[in-house]
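The following record pairs a protein chain with its ligand, arabino-flavin-adenine dinucleotide.
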Amino acid sequence: MRTQVGIIGAGPAGLLLSRLLALRGIDSVVLENRSREHIEARIRAGILEQHTVDTLTDAGLGDRLRRQGLEHRGIHLQYPGTRHTLDFPALCGRTVWVYGQTEVVKDLVAAQLDGGPPLLFDVSDVRPEDVDGDSPRIRFTAADGTPQALECDVIAGTDGFHGVSRPVVTAGTDGRRWERTYPYAWLGILADAAPATDELVYAWHPEGFALYSMRSPSVSRLYLQVDPSDSIDSWSDDRIWENLSRRLRLDGWDVSTGPVTEKSILPMRSFVSAPMRRGRLFLAGDAAHIVPPTGAKGLNLAVADVTLLATALTRLLREKRTDLVDAYSDTALRRVWRCTHFSWWMTSMLHRSGDDFDAQLQLSQLQRVCSSEAAARELAENYTGLPVE
Ligand code: FAS
Ligand code: PHB
């Protein structure tokens, strides 16, 4: 087998990269070690920045998004006795969209299987080789058990935090990694309940953080700060709703409950690995970086990476010019660190550490954001997404 770009991983990063390259006349093959059903059912992100929506629209993937997605003009920040609305268009002229990552992946997979480049599911033993030369290859076992070798000009490692690509990059470079594990986790639920709020509610509470999000006018997505060692088995639906209500309710307003259709506990970490390249192997998305979901950055950062990478690889493979691929890692990492800082800042401001000094600092920060247009604008610009370089 031969292709110009071998792509490891069919998450949002890998699938969108393949689509963007195809639109520029560059062929690729996407290798995924799980099934189509599995990757389309993985419940993850929910917020798309405007540049993500524009990128998907320009790639011919915006129809269902704009029909079923929900454009949101702000968020509510809440602490005891106060719910303050940040008006994004007034603060920074941008909005965000609520459209689940599951739906983004379904749209990308459908486009790929409808005449797009090859997308191979259920592969195994994936191994990038000879990435320091001009003829790298990916060895893997196909779903039918046959060993394969995919000869490439370039390999994209879009295989997420637990993938095989980053270890190959770090083994061959004087790379660095930075990691922070947070002393709390998120318990997330999907519920068949009409959201009781128009905009997302990010709530600081003495008992812990809570987030009121949604997926549609009839499906709510909510999160609770819990201890990382908690087991989901110790959280009955009733206990989850009781805690969500205590942390989110205001006088005369409460959450809307309904059947919980999914619940899970998500650990929280910040992680960055640099560089995002070794020879002809390029990392994008969670393969290179992880942010806590408080800032709604993870998926959007993956999209920004592959937007950059698609342009850089097109320049390399069609014009034989290396300027953009040589600049890719540094350019991508500037945005990675901006999003890493913002996600850390939102997480640190909103999550209880158990320390009362921290609590006073957090409340002061929240009061500042809710009373200062300049402070609110800084949050709004980062949350809605800074322009992609
Ligand atoms: P992904 O991890 O999505 O995709 C990588 C793909 O590579 C997967 O399909 C995997 O099966 C495949 N793969 C892995 N190893 C392979 C191998 N050896 N061979 C072939 N394929 C391989 N972000 C937010 O903004 N908000 C959220 O609320 C949020 N919630 C999250 C919850 C969870 C549980 C997780 C893990 C992440 C969450 N994120 C959230 C972040 C998430 O949305 C990521 O940023 C996004 O999935 C990044 O996309 P990719 O880089 O494509 O990585
Ligand atoms: C979600 O809807 O899943 C969501 C929204 C905002 C976040 C994180 C997750 O910050």
